[in-house]
Amino acid sequence: MTNIGIFDSGLGGVAVLNELAKRNKANYFYLGDNLRVPYGNRSKAEITKFATDIVDFLENYDIDYYIIACNTISVTCKDYLREKYAKKFITIAEMAVEAALGFEGDYLALATKATIDSHFYKNTIEGKKSCHVYESKAIDLVNLIEAGVLDGKTLNDSIDEYLSIANEKQIANIILACTHYPIIKDKIRERLSYKANIIDPAVYLAEKIRTDDMENVVNIFMTKESQETSDLINKIMEVDYKLSFIGGL
């Protein structure tokens, strides 16, 4: 069996795990650090330390390769992780850029503070084609989603703020540059005043991965037990899984 390690700052990467497990059978070991979420407002040193804690835990499961299902980790310490562990790390951010380059027009990168501050999407995409990449720091969205706030005025007001430049300029492509955001993809589409192409990197990644295994074994580890987390994972996952709360790293 192929042992695939997947990790994220919280439960957002579960949407990535779900897309992968629907299309490709393997042994999946997912870790979401919902005890210390969000990562997007933290320093690079903190993010690197937390990412190392996560990989150290997953290394106990003889992982063949990793998928960094967190844009914040992807853009801050992917090179460090690749060098430290001498293993293959596929990042959701790199997959998102590949997906985005298949579309014409300008882009809005909707992401956490750390991802936007890195200017990874802007610099990478604008360096590869003639276009403009706008950036929006969706500071509150991860906390709202982790708390199970998937509808209502508070969420709508936050989305409206972060999409204001998209609605103003009618930007052709919206990149969901945080793995939490596909969970509210329909709500994001609803708050746009025009029809845009919404790019979900998880779907693109799942189509790129190929395994030859005959069955799925899906293990989900979370660092903090909460009913909201359990309920949301159950809502997201469309394949069988085992959920364990490990109480920190």
Give the helices and strands, then pairings.
Elements: E1 3-8, H1 14-23, E2 27-32, H2 44-58, E3 65-68, H3 71-85, E4 89-91, H4 92-100, E5 107-111, H5 113-118, H6 120-126, E6 133-137, H7 141-146, H8 153-162, H9 164-169, E7 173-176, H10 185-191, E8 197-199, H11 201-208, E9 217-222, H12 227-236, E10 242-245
Parallel strand pairs: 1-2, 1-3, 2-9, 3-4, 5-6, 5-7, 7-8, 9-10
In short:
It contains 12 helices and 10 strands. The protein is of the alpha/beta class.
CATH class category label of the largest domain = Alpha Beta
Spatial order of the strands forming the largest sheet:
4-3-1-2-9-10
Structural class: alpha/beta
Radius of gyration computed on alpha carbons: 17 Å
Shape: globular
CATH topology of the largest domain: Rossmann fold
- How far is the first residue's CA from the last residue's CA? 26 Å
The average pLDDT value, as a whole number, equals: 95
- Indicate the CATH architecture of the largest domain: 3-Layer(aba) Sandwich
Stretches where pLDDT is under 50 for at least 5 consecutive residues are: none
Tell me roughly what share of residues is in helical segments. 40-55%
Task: Provide an overview of this structure.
- It is a single chain.
- The mean pLDDT is 95.
- The chain folds into two domains: 3-91 and 203-245, 3-Layer(aba) Sandwich (Rossmann fold), CATH 3.40.50; 94-201, Rossmann fold, CATH 3.40.50.1860.
- It has helices spanning 14-23, 44-58, 71-85, 92-100, 113-118, 120-126, 141-146, 153-162, 164-169, 185-191, 201-208, 227-236, and strands at residues 3-8, 27-32, 65-68, 89-91, 107-111, 133-137, 173-176, 197-199, 217-222, 242-245.
- It has twelve helices and ten strands.
- The chain has a six-stranded parallel β-sheet, sandwiched between helices. A four-stranded parallel β-sheet has the order 6-5-7-8.
- The longest helix is centred in the first third of the chain and has 15 residues, at 44-58.
- The protein is α/β, with parallel strands linked by helices.
